[in-house]
Design brief:
Layout: E1 23-24, E2 27-36, H1 42-60, H2 68-88, E3 93-101, E4 108-115, H3 139-146, E5 149-154, E6 159-166, H4 213-231, H5 237-248, E7 255-265, E8 273-285, H6 291-300, E9 314-315, E10 330-339, E11 342-352, H7 359-396, E12 407-414, E13 425-433, E14 436-444, H8 449-467, H9 472-500, E15 517-527, E16 530-538, E17 544-546, E18 552-554, E19 573-577, E20 582-586, H10 588-591, E21 594-595, E22 598-599, H11 605-611, H12 618-632, E23 641-648
Antiparallel strand pairs: 1-2, 2-3, 3-4, 4-6, 5-6, 7-8, 7-11, 9-10, 10-11, 12-23, 13-14, 14-15, 15-16, 16-19, 17-18, 17-20, 20-23, 21-22
Length: 649
């Protein structure tokens, strides 16, 4: 990497230039890098990435090379830079962490954060007034406080902000929490050391009770980083509110309250939300016997802050009547919780015996409030996405499965919800007319919206073609052509959009056919003494037939996935199910269930499991197979799981 540039210089190495890891020249020059999606969870992921890198380097370094202070400072720096990039760019974020100890240069740790909006300047609170501060934190003020050098590089496709931290633990600027007591402070209140009465917990040196400036600075920054880690990844907004209370009380306040703006989904779509007023989601007090009375008092008069203050601290009335004689007077501050430009709620803190909060506390809570807002925004985004997924999932599956004369059926359907949208597995069992019933078990490549599109095409067309009297092979032939035509039309539309935008048209691997579907489809026709079954498997795990004596055999042959090859001719097999015979159909979530390097169906494991179910009812067989699949691996299944059992009675 060469010499570390000064604040006004730029890094000469391009972001895509590989830097050798390990020893280079006369010193150690170690680099790790990663790319993260530019979303609310990026700061937490970046902190985990840097912490893991420092832990690995510490194991190979001299003792005391990586102090707790260095780790804390590095986590704060990467958190601030990534938060800045998330708020102002929203693109994928590239992170480089570089440790080097080169001759004639001071040893240091360099953190680089790059986004892909080079035309957007990095925002810095140093140039902002006390009003209108957006929700990106103290940003470069903290970075400048902790780093010996930092800078910004603009290139054709990226913007990079870098900072160097000293390995000897001596920052270029002494102090730390004073970064919170600048122009954005609340009318310049007393410092933490000047507060009469009990010291604020976060700023008192343990064991001495006397605030120590150095400890206060790095202790505050460490608190902020740890709070960010705790809030990151929480998927419930009420839990975020509860954690906020526990973080603030009693460290920085005697009590706190969190109001959240409720959202009501209207008819304009699940992403159209209308605020219906604030609700008091959480009240926390150092003394639990004060919580309920404080809640009743606060609910009578929710804080209403003007939009012009953004997330700046605003004094609010002190609820003295709810806090007893010792809490008759005190200071209370309110912070608007804003993320993505949308107000999400209000945070209020209070401490008895104060005329006003110290500036460093005001700024620290302001910074924490921004992270709380980001966490609430992420939780709401997840909740909206989960709601959309549930609605889509219900619409893509039948409301009920048909009852077939002479056949008992059982179904297990367990979508694996990882926040990626609707499952790629689907099923159906419906009357096809003229004494016939049709069944299907399918698995779309991938999941989410693309899978929903394919299922939304396949299931209605299966029903339509079956009820029009098409035979099993003809249904698969036509469905295959439908998927191919739809994929081609989608690719053509995307290419036209790119051409209209002046962008080059990418060449997709495998051509335009990207919507693949594995499907097991069949028909059942009851007759006196049994059921005639005709079925075909298109790239799907083959069905198994269990006889009354425990004999198990495959009853189909493997064929090509749907949506891959044109002009393919599918074939079917016909056999009879006599009383006691059972047909088991599964998706690959069953056969490919993993335990280490082994899969559930290795060595015909599924057939062996089914053989042990002789004499059981359809429901018992389905539950038995489901249990065996779950017990096979030590962790919960990582894929959607579906199985259908059909038993002739």
């Amino acid at each position: 990497m060469g010499a570390i540039p000064t604040q006004r210089e730029t890094i000469s190495r391009a972001p895509d230039t590989p830097v050798p890891e390990g020893h280079e020249g006369a010193g150690l020059h170690t680099v790790v890098r990663t790319t993260l999606p530019g979303g609310p969870l990026a700061p937490g992921a970046a902190r985990r990435f840097v912490r893991a890198a420092l832990r690995a380097w510490a194991e190979a370094a001299e003792p005391d090379t990586f102090t707790e202070r260095l780790v804390d400072d590095a986590l704060v720096v990467v958190s601030e830079l990534v938060t800045n990039a998330v708020v102002h760019a929203g693109t994928d974020i590239d992170i480089v962490c570089c440790l080097h100890d080169v001759e004639d240069e001071p040893p240091g740790l360099v953190v680089e954060v790059s986004d892909h909006h080079p035309s957007r300047a990095v925002r810095d609170d140093v140039t902002e007034g006390s009003y209108g501060i957006p929700e990106y934190g103290r940003g470069l003020r903290l970075v400048a406080t902790l780093a010996t050098a930092w800078g910004i590089t603009y290139r054709t496709t990226t913007k990079t902000v870098w900072a160097q931290l000293p390995l000897d633990g001596v920052s270029a600027v002494c102090g730390g929490v004073e970064a919170y007591a600048g122009e954005g402070a609340l009318d310049r209140g007393p410092s933490a050391a000047e507060i009469p009465g009990p010291e604020l917990t976060a700023f008192a040196e343990p064991g001495r009770g006397v605030p120590d400036r150095d400890w206060r600075g790095h202790g505050a920054l460490s608190f902020l980083a740890e709070a960010s880690d705790l809030l990151a990844g929480q998927l419930d907004e009420d839990l975020v509110a509860a954690l906020t209370g526990q973080l603030l009380v009693p460290r920085l306040a005697d009590w706190c309250a969190v109001w959240l703006e409720d959202e009501a989904t209207g008819w304009h779509g699940p992403e159209t939300a209308v605020a219906t007023g604030p609700r008091l989601a959480r009240v926390w007090h150092g003394s639990e016997n004060r919580i309920e009375e404080l809640r009743r008092t606060l609910e009578k008069d929710p804080p209403r802050l003007p939009e012009s203050v953004r997330s700046r601290a605003v004094p609010v009335p002190w609820p003295g009547e709810a806090l007893g004689p010792r809490g008759a007077t005190g200071a209370a501050l309110a912070y608007r919780l804003i993320a993505g430009g949308r107000p999400l709620g209000t945070l209020v803190i209070g401490r008895a015996g104060l005329l006003r909060f110290p500036d460093e506390v005001t700024g620290l809570v302001e910074d924490l409030s921004r992270r709380v807002a980001l966490a609430i925004g992420a939780a709401r985004q997840y909740a909206r996405q989960a709601t959309i997924s549930r609605v889509l999932q219900r619409g893509l599956l039948p409301g009920a499965v048909a009852e077939i004369p002479g056949v008992s059926s059982a179904l297990v359907y367990e979508p694996c919800d990882k926040g990626g949208g609707p499952s790629g597995d689907f099923y159906d069992l419906f009357p096809a007319g003229h004494g016939r019933w049709s069944f299907a078990l399918g698995d779309v490549q991938g999941k989410g919206p693309e899978a929903a599109v394919v299922i939304g095409l396949a299931r209605p067309w299966l029903r339509l073609l079956a009820r029009e009297g098409y035979a099993v092979p003809d249904v698969l032939d036509r469905l295959n052509q439908l998927l191919l035509d739809d994929a081609t039309e989608a690719a053509d539309a995307a290419a036209r959009a790119l051409v209209a935008a002046g962008a080059p048209v990418p060449v997709a691997d495998g051509g335009p056919h990207a919507r693949f579907l594995s499907l097991l489809y069949g028909e059942l026709a009851p007759f006196d003494g049994g059921v005639r079954c005709t079925l075909a498997s298109a790239g799907h795990p083959l069905p198994l037939l269990l006889g009354p004596d425990g004999d198990v055999r495959f009853v189909a042959q493997p064929q090509t996935l749907l949506g891959v090859v044109e002009d393919v001719m599918y074939v079917c097999e016909t056999f009879e199910l006599h009383p006691g015979d059972t047909l088991l159909c599964v998706t690959d979530g069953v056969t490919e269930r993993r335990s280490g390097s082994r899969q559930f169906d290795d060595g015909d494991g599924l057939a062996a499991a089914l053989a042990g179910c002789a004499g059981m009812s359809a429901q018992m067989i389905a539950e038995r197979i489901r249990t065996l699949v779950h017990e096979f691996g030590g962790q919960p299944p990582e894929d959607d799981l579906a199985l259908l059992v059909l038993r002739a009675e």
